[in-house]
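Risk mitigation, structural track. In case the binding assays with zinc ion fail to produce interpretable data, a predicted complex structure has been prepared as a fallback.
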Amino acid sequence: MPTFQTTLITCQQCGRRIMVRAVDAERGSITCSHIGCGAVNNLQTAFQYDEAIVNGLPDFGQLHYLGTPETAYPLQFGPNIIGTGEGCTVRVGRFEHGGRCYISRQHCTLTITFDKWTGQLRYRVQDGAIGPDSLTMRPSLNGTLLNGAPLQKTEIIDVGDGDVITLGGADRFRLTHATINLVMLDTYKIDLAFNPDRTQ
Ligand SMILES: [Zn+2]
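Fallback model:
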């Protein structure tokens, strides 16, 4: 059963507060209980998903290196710093091309969040990373591309399932999203009741 968060709304006739319970939300209306009012207030219902679902997910997707050797790197919820450096969440190999590696020690940041409205994970990439010694984003030396298009220094872009991130112009990685089981998702549904006059 989805959970329901008890909400207070403002009566459209008398302006006093009324408590909305799950049964009222199901019916789609609530009768004001204040003495001398009794107005019928219509309710709009909407729902969100509880972010606690992420604690029960087995994985958060992978980045697959498309060069040699083909490698799969698991991702974490939250920011994933990708690079060749020691402190990286996703520490990739020092892949060389003509004796040079084009990936920075902290090259880009792939952030995974949970969208409470869609119940899906959201993946966003940004060139550079916040280093251990600074509070600002430091761009990579050779840039990051998403599906072949270079990211601007301050851009944060959504990365779709199967999209390709290229680091330093030479090394390509394909993102595989994690999928959330729909039966499991349904158990994390939270119904919200809204008073139509209080749209925000
Ligand atoms: Zn009332």
